[in-house]
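User: Batch of two.

Assistant: Item 1 of 2:
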Amino acid sequence: MKLLITPNNDKHGIEENTIRLCKKLHEFDGVILMTSSDRAVYKDYCDEWDDDCNVMMHKCDAVIAIGGDGTILRSASHAAVFGKPVLGLNLGRLGFMAGLEFSELDLISRLFTREYKIQERMMLDIRVNRNGKCEYRNIALNDAVIARGTTSHIVDLQVRHNNDACLEYRADGLIFCTPTGSTAYSFSAGGPVVDPSVKSIILTPVCPHSMLDRSIIFSSDSYLEIEPKVTRENEVLLTLDGDSMRKIESGSVIEIKRSNMDAKFIIIKQNSFSRTFTGKMHC
C-alpha cells in the first residue's frame, strides 16, 4: 500500500510523531511517499520522493495528513481532485476532521487489513464571473466567505437562489459552507451544526445590519448567485477554506453550487457525528 504523508512541519512535535508513524507503517510493509521539501528531515524513513505533490498524489493509494484541521482540510481538498482518500492524524486543538489521535496510532493496522470505511463529504464549486466570462474557479471543502476587506464599511450583497428569490444583506460578509464546514467559521458566527450526512449548503451572515440575521439551509442541488456592491471605498474579498483569497472586482457575480467532486475520508473508528462533536466541544 502506497501512502503519501503530508505533515505540517510548523506543528509542535511533528518530527517525532511523523517518524513514529513512518516506523509503524513500515511494520506492515507500507510504502511511504513524501515531497522532496521534507527530505532533509525524513530522509531515513521515506521510500519515494518527488518535487511535485501532484505526481505523488497520482502514485499513492491514500493520503495521511498530520496536523490540525487546516492541514487535513488542505490535503483532503487536494486529494479530492485525484479521487484519493485521506486519513487525518490530529496534532491540533480540536481535530474535527481527524480520523485518529496519535494516542491511537496502533489502529493504523486497520488500513492494511481493510477494516475501515470511506466517508464522502460534499464540496462547493465556486466561480467568479465578470462581463459574461469566468475569471476564477475553485473548490472548497469547508466554506466560501464573501466579506469586506481592510475598510470598515459594511457590504451590500444580493443573493439569488435558483435564479429566483433575491435576498438582500448589509453585513460584514456572508459565509456559504458545507456540513463539514458548519463546525468552523459558520459555527463561530452563530450558524447551525449540520451532520455531514445531510447534504446541504448553509448561508450564515456575519454581523448583519438588518433583520435578516439567521442562517438559511439550502438543499445541496441549489444554485446560488451572489452580487456584492463593490465601490472605490469598499473592498470585497472572496476567501475559500480560510486560505485561498481573491479580491472581487465591481460587476462580478459569484456562483456557488455543489461540486461534482467529493472529499473522501478514511474512517477507522466508527464514532457517530454527535459523539465526535460533543467530545471535541466537551459538551
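Item 2 of 2:
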Amino acid sequence: MNDEYNRNELGNDLGSDARGSSTETGVYSARHYDYTGGTDKATYMTGSAGGYHGSEQKSSSVGNDYGTDKPRKDKKKGGFAGKFFATIGLGIVFGLTAGATLFLMGKTLPGTVTSDAGTAITDSTESAVKEKKDNVAIVADNGEDFENSAIESDFETRNIIGAGAVVTDVSDMVDAAMPSIVSITGKYIITGQSFWGQTYSEETEGSGSGIIIGQDDDKLYIATNNHVVEDSEGLKVQFIDGSDAEATVKGTDADVDLAVIIVDMDDLSADTRSAIKVAELGNSDAIKIGEPAVVIGNSLGYGQTVTYGVISAVDRTLELDDGTVSKGLIQTDAAINPGNSGGALLNINGEVIGISSSKIGGSTIDGVGFAIPITSAQPILSDIVTSVERIKVSESKQGYLGIGGQTVTEEVSKMYGLPVGVLVRQVYEGTGAAESGLEQGDVITAVGGRSIKSMEELKEELQYYAKDEVIQITASRLSDGLYSDMTFDVRLVDRDALK
C-alpha cells in the first residue's frame, strides 16, 4: 500500500515539474539569425516554444557581441519547424527518463527489504532477524518484544532493524551463578587522635563479596580479597536465601590480595545448604578482548548486584599508591564498585574467570575495573584451603617479639636502599628477640615463612602465635655494603616483658 502511494505521488510531481520547465522557465528559448537581407547585418528574434517575438538588428562583424561571422546559408523550408519539434521531443524523452529513474529508486527490487535509513536487507538477513537465539531478544523502540513471532510486513522489519536494539539477556546465567556468590560484612576497629591529642578507637563495618569455591562435611570455603578481611574483628556472611552465618579467616596472601574464609556447615540450615552451590571456575587464559563479562557482588553493601560489560583488556599491570605492583590483571568496563571486592567476574557461560578487586583502580574512574584472573588465583587459593588451619589466639595469650620497629615502604626502599619490611629500631633486653641475636638495623621480611611488608602485617601475623612459642624470623642485615638474609629462632614473650 505504501509503495503504491509513493509511486503515484512521485509520478504526479515529476509530470508537474516537466510541464513547468517547458512553459515557464524557457528551456527551449533560442536566437534565430537571418542573413537574407544581403547586408553585413543579421536580424535575430528571441522566444520560446510558443513562438518568437520581437526583433533586433546587430552587426555580425568580427569582434562584435556575437563572435565571428557565420557563413550565410540558404534556409531550407521547414528547417526551423523540424528543429523546434525535435527539441520538444528530446525534452519529453528526458522527462520520462527522469521520472522512470526516480520511480525505480523509490521502488525496492524484488527479494529485498529496506530499512528506514534506506539500507537494503537481503532475504537471508530478514530470515536471520526472524530467528531468535535463546539468549537474545529483539526489542523495538516502543519496548515491544517481538520474540519469535513472524514479521508480517516490511514496516515491522524496518522498525526492528533500523530503529531497534539487540539486547543480550543474561538473566538465566545470573540465576544459575548467584547461589555461589556471598556478601561479606566485617567489623573493624579504627583508631585516631582527637583535637586535644587523645587517642580513641571506634568500631565500624565494611562490606565485601566472596565466592564459594569448596565444601566438605565440616566447612564451606569462600574466596575473597585480602583487603576485605584484613584487620577484621569479626566476619559475617550472607547467602542467596538471605540467611547469614559467622565466618573466620582460613588464610591470606597479601602479596596477591587473596584470602579464604570458612563457615561451619553446622551453622547452616537445611534450606540454606540446598540453596547454595560451589562456583564453576573457568579458564581466564582463554578469554578474548571484547567478549561479554558479568560482575556479581555486594555493591555498596546493598546485597547482590549484577553489572554487565565486556573484557576491555588482559594482562594489565598496575602500581598502587603504597608501591605494591599487581600484574596480569583483567580489565573490564562492567562496573566494579566498593563492596564488589572479592566477588565474581564471569563469562557468558556463568564460569568464574576473575575475582573482582575494587581496591585496584580507585574510585574516581568510570568504566575501568580490574579483576584477578582465576587461573593464577586458583593454585594460591588451593594452597590456603589445604594448609593447616590457623586460629588467632586471644589477646591475653598472644606472644610478642620484643622489638620496636618501623615500616620500610617501597618509596623508602628506593631512596635509601633498604629492603622492604620492618626496620628494627630497638631490641628490648631480656626478650626472645635479644636472645636470638636480632640487632638494631636489621630489616624483618618474613615471619614463619610468610612475607611481611609493614608493622601492621607483622602484628597481624603474630596474632596466630602464643607466648613462649618459638617462631622463625627472616631478616636482612647490612654487611660490607650489602644486605643478606638471615634466620633467627625467636621465643615469644608476654606483653609484660616489654615494660
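The chain is about 25% helix and 35% strand.
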